[in-house]
Amino acid sequence: MLSKGITALVIFSFFSIVVTAQPPRKIHWSKDGSSYYKSNDNQIVQIDPASSKSTTIVTKEQLTPVGTSAPLHVRNFFFSNDGNKLLIYTNSKRVWRYDTRGDYWLIDISNYSLKKLGNDRPESSLMFAKFSPDGQKVAYVSEYNLYVEDLASGKTDQLTTNGTRELINGTFDWAYEEEFFCRDGFRWSPDSKKIAYWQMDAKNTKDYLMVDNTDSIYPFVKPVVYPIAGEPPSPFKIGVVTISNAQTTWMIIPTDPVLQSYVPRMEWAANNNELIIQHLNRKQNTSDLMLCDATTGNSKTIYEEKDSAWIDILPLWDEDYSYGGWDWLNNGKEFLWATEKDGWRHLYRINRSGKEKLITTGNYDVMKINAIDEKNNYVYFEASPQNATRQYLYRTKLDGKGKAERISPLNQNGTHDYEVSPQAKFAFHTFSNYYTPETEEWVSLPDHAALDGHKVYHALEGADSTKSNIKFFTVKTTGGIEMDAWMAQPANFDSTKKYPVVFFVYTEPWGQNVKDVYGTADNFLYKGSLADDGYIYISIDNRGTPVPKGRAWRKSVFHKIGLVNIQDQAMAAKEIFKKPYIDTSRVAVWGWSGGGSATLNLMFQYPDIYKTGIAIAAVGNQLTYDNIYQERYMGLPQESRDDFMKGSPITYAKNLKGNLLYIHGTGDDNVHYQNAEMLLNELIKYNKQFQFMPYPNRSHGIFEGEGTREHLRTLYTNYLRQYCPPGGR
């Protein structure tokens, strides 16, 4: 999943939306949910949402190490369970997508002493440091090994010793990180005596060899462990290491010795004796929830789910779980789980024997789990039963006996998001729609009473939908497929004239474009205003996009990515062309990553519709992309190679008729530059003329280096204006 949040700018890319940097910067709630903590100008403050009263907990001076004049730059911070100690994360460095490697400093709140952890480790090498539950120790990963540091004595013990780039302890390889959101790979036991962790064995996983031509006179190779579609994944192990003697017990988890399998989730099972894991087969269409005995390693399946297509794991649709977590109920006797088994994504209670009880009912998808208020028998979640472009907060009874109750105000139509406190007392509420800028406020729950000035109410009151040039509509194809879309009309629109149209596409299972949010029709690559220059700008969500329209909608592209999604876009375009103000001789399409792949397929498969295309960082050949993503949606190449080729743009490159600009970073670790050269060879073979722009040593986001983004925007804008001229005629 080629993430959208590679930079602060939102890049619509392959298969995910990740705008926040890592580790996660969610709200740091107090245990009782009555207040929260935040970093403010490199000091830590505590704030009461009800009164907005702020109290400084740690000052700049207290965050200034001895012998220095400046306070630590607080990238993130974490309290011990008792609130008496604080970890400060700073000096962070990027690891693939996010800055998960850095330095950690300990502050003892009782005397405000400040000391750096991992002093014997290289600078900025610590990952995922976290307190033991009793607050006496901190564990972290450094250079592929696990360490634990005693806070009283300062003694550090190395819990694993065999870690290398190819034998990874406590974190993950590239594919697990990208496709399962797996980064933090270890968990403290509740009694602080053991740590459960992943070990990834990548010794037999092939490297992608990336060539760096810019950072030295002699080029050099940068290998990346990267299993492509058809290659087995790096084998995993789940171990439990005892802190006192650094001895590991390995869990006995059955796996296919040839195909291998996956464990994308693992936590302690609400006690000190067992782990609970989610075990997926290689095809990701069978999910087993298993309990593992932490002492013997024996495991047993308590709940199995099968799907004729694939199974989405929780962090893939609710990123709050990207760094772990398991929702236990009833003192650890049950837990909350989500499946699509009845055609919609619903929540269930499952006990330790695997017996289930449905909690949410109806023809709608749960889009996110926001909070569990077990005391009052409620689960809070986000959904949008009537309009797939929006998002609202609901709650329902945890015992499954109630109906879903909308908490978001009925007069606030648009997209809401909430960070809800423990015990569901308060929430940080974010709202926008296509004509109302994003607005933040604090609310109490469940009454949704504004605590700091009715900011969303006043924002809506001052907004005017008639001043927006964006129109939401549905388009129905001759095949009966109805899709959501938006259209941004030109300034001073004249329906008697004909205008050029630019389609913005993504089309794959990791990108919903048609959202009722502010800025939804912004084009960050265009220098100027599409509307002012006289373009119609359109985006359509086809089948297979991750919209809350049920399982059948999302999984209709199984084995058919590059076909069903592309046909839906083209047939929708034909319906839109029936509007008299569309100039069908000036039709452009563009996209990034998965959207780049769609752009190529549309240009090649429907050359009579799309006259100009700008494709960025596209997968030209599905056989080159990673196994977890590609096999999830397309099956194993060994069994369905024809499906891979039927969905790949290179198969249709010979059909190019229009104007194509293709762009790729040569240092792209996600969609490798190899895709570009494979595609170029096909176009050259058939004497297809095109424009190509490689960006030396740039990653998937194409942002590194002075002047890069400005150059890209200029290139994009000039090409569009030249080959799809603006203005009504």
Walk me through what this model shows.
The protein has 11 helices and 43 strands. By secondary structure, it is mainly β. The protein folds into 4 domains: 29-134, no CATH class; 159-321, Dipeptidylpeptidase IV, N-terminal domain (Methanol Dehydrogenase, Chain A), CATH 2.140.10.30; 365-463; 469-723, Rossmann fold (3-Layer(aba) Sandwich), CATH 3.40.50. The protein has an 8-stranded mixed beta sheet with strand order 36-37-39-38-40-41-42-43, with helices on both faces. Strands 13, 14, 15, 18 and 19 form a 5-stranded antiparallel beta sheet that branches. A 4-stranded antiparallel beta sheet has the order 1-2-3-4, with no helix packed on it. Helix 6 (564-576) crosses helix 7 (594-605). The longest helix has 16 residues, at 708-723. The relative contact order is 0.09.
Write a concise keyword list for the protein shown above.
single chain, 729 residues, mainly beta, Methanol Dehydrogenase, Chain A, 4 domains, eight-stranded mixed sheet, disordered N terminus
Short description:
By secondary structure, this protein is mostly beta strands. 14% of the residues lie in helices and 34% in strands.
